Amino acid sequence: MPEIDFLVVGGLAALIGSIVQGSVGLGVGLVATPIVTMLFPSLMPGSILVVALALPVATLAREVGHADLRGLGWAFGGRLVGTPLGVLLVAAVPQRALGIVIGGVVLAALAVTAWSREVPRNRRTLAAAGVVSGATGTASGIGGPPLALLYQRESGPRVRATLAVFFIVGALLSLATLAAAGRLPVRQVTAGVALVPFVLAGFAAAGPLRRYLDDGRLRTALLAVVGTSALALIIRNLL
Fold this sequence. Notes:
By secondary structure, the protein is mostly helical. About 80% of the residues lie in helices and about 0% in strands. The chain contains twelve helices and no strands. Helix 5 packs antiparallel against helix 12 (about 220-239).
């Protein structure tokens, strides 16, 4: 059973992150990962990957019909390549340097797409986003921004449902790969399961915000979440 301080701090982070993701489409890993990494590093990345698996299931229960399954096929192909790369990064690169690099990559992608009139979404960009997401998601628990940036101009239900399918498959793949490599302790999985009630509570509380953002405000919120998460990751590792 996880300690009470983890349940309080980690649970609050998972609750807030779930409210963000339940309305924007991503956020639980972006909010909870820095906090859990900083205060409970021995529980990373497995605990957040378990959380990242639970929340999308709730999203799909509402919006499964909006998922872009054709586009996800190319992204999943990239994820298959990126996930083993993430395992290698965990083993070979110091955690501080890894966090700075991941944050920088996300900020660069954000800058390019935010100033583009149209973000190209084709088999090449989807596959590339899958590779980057697989590597960063497995290494740090933050894998949503690359794909989210490609769908930033879509409707709220399409963004959330598409990302939900991607997160479920991606989290399962990352967990399986880490387990096969002997880098997924049981205590990390147990800690993640303990946070699931907080995740579900956050998703339920996100309803009013979800309706507000779906009224033409989702793209701004999505870009703000991605940019804030990248900056926070960089600053935390620099300090």
